[in-house]
Amino acid sequence: MTAQPKKQSRAEEKLRAFHEEDAMTRTYDATLAKRLWPFVRPHAWFLAGSLGALLLLAATRVVSPRIMGSVIDSAVAKDGDALLRKGITLALLVVVQQLVSFVGMYAMQIAGARAMTDLRTTVFAFLQKLELRYYDRTPVGRLVTRATNDIDAVNELFDSGVLIAVIDALTLVGIVVMMLMLDWQLSLIAFAAIPVVGLIVNFVRRRSRQAFREIRTKTARLNAFLNEQVSGIAVVQAYAREAAMATEFDDINDAYRDANKRSIFYEAILDAAIEMVATVCIASILWWAGLQKVGNHALSFALVVTFTQYIKQFFEPVSLLAQRYTILQSAMSGAERIFKLLDEKEIDPEPIAEKDAGPAGPADEALALVGVDFEYKPNVPVLRDVSLTVRRGERVALVGATGAGKTTVTALALRLYEAKNGLVRVLGKDVRSYDRHGLRENFSVVPQDVFLFTGTVLSNVAMSDPNPDRKKAEKALQRVGALELFMRRPEGLDAPVDERGANFSAGERQLLAFARAVYRDSPILILDEATASIDSDTEAKLQLALEAVMEGRTAIVIAHRLSTIRAADRIVVFHKGRVVEVGTHEALLEKGGVYARLHRLQFAQKRATLPALVAG
Asked: Does CATH place domain 351-442+557-616 in 3.60.20.10?
């Protein structure tokens, strides 16, 4: 009898439906605080100043009820002069408290803002070091959450004054001492509530931590979904998927709301319970004072007022500690996720010269792959025993079906990925003997999907240069025949570029990519389906730009349109991760192999499409 599979729980189904990250491991707050300290340490002077001011604040708060009690004594005794002096003293004390509180909180928040800036910089720099395979499987919105929401949650430690917890604890000690000095019996009544508060805090502690953990997870999923939908809004609208996407968003949003409701519930329990215990304590004090009066051992009115003030001050830091504890849980949940990212092992190592790097190649060699195997996923080979040599100044085209491994060759040359086996050389040197900057300076890349960054035409053309050279950018645009086109805009090279270049046509974006390659002026040029996203008419107009970009350089052209690579010195044909044919256009057609079959299929499709277009 076959065992029936267990029915998935609702939580497991939600986890799978929302594509959540792996469950977070429990990390102790002390461990996380220790890891946060290196970011806070450079700004410790602000923290020291803040703690000094807050210690003074704690001292003034401890003595203020005693002064208030003496004011009441003077009022009862009808001593006008003493009442005036003590009233002025109390007023000055309040002013000092407010000034000291401002200095303490301001310094603490400055320390927090600077520390979180350093942490955010570290996270951003780390994101740039991650291997591309990590991005292949991780939603962008989830990573953005690490550098924004999660760090903001940690910053709440400083904004809300959670670090004042140490001062609150010292304040509590001072209050306990003053209460015992005033009346030990009344003090015992107040202290009887401490175990109750401890039980409540212990009840809430674990549950609130898990609730905040869920909030951080749902926030990441929400951001990832929003990023995906906004980026792909054109496709969503084209396929009329607005309603379906809205329904999916509702599920994710509801999960985020429910996680917040749980955290609010536990926070409300903590606040209400502590307020209730404080009220019961004050009522007990008044009841005890009444009993003393009946028993002819009356307590003075000033003592009762003073003690009531101390009770309020006793539970005020307790309540604040409880509130700050929930913030602490939120911050620690955010810190857990940040350090989980920073602990990621898939780091793109900074290439350094290795003693055991492979042998050098011939002087005229631009790019060589020798017996290279590669796989993006374990046991799913993409390249199999690929050997290929491109000489300096040569134009070589890589062709083949989608997924044959063409683009992977250039990724290995740039060392975006590491070859599993074999040797990759650039300009006669093993890629492992270069540092990252030195290796990639040898390449100019024009991708199929041109990515323009928010800025100006100048900043995008000269993106490889930290100090853009306007004249050099103009020459680059002129070489690709695009200078006049962009100078027609009112701002010229200072014309703004919207996100992803949305305010430019596909042809204009492609011209900017060509100009970017000319500006960089690297010895090796990679054209990765550089004209695939534009029509044949526009492609013909860009031939001049293509020739200008390739002039005097080694060119590696990846193309599906075989018409664009006829003039290549050699054509390398890939099939299922292997090099199966190498030759010129005419020689490969005569051979009648894979290339000839691709050529026949492509031009047969064109002949079939043309009558339909004419009829249309």
From this structure: no
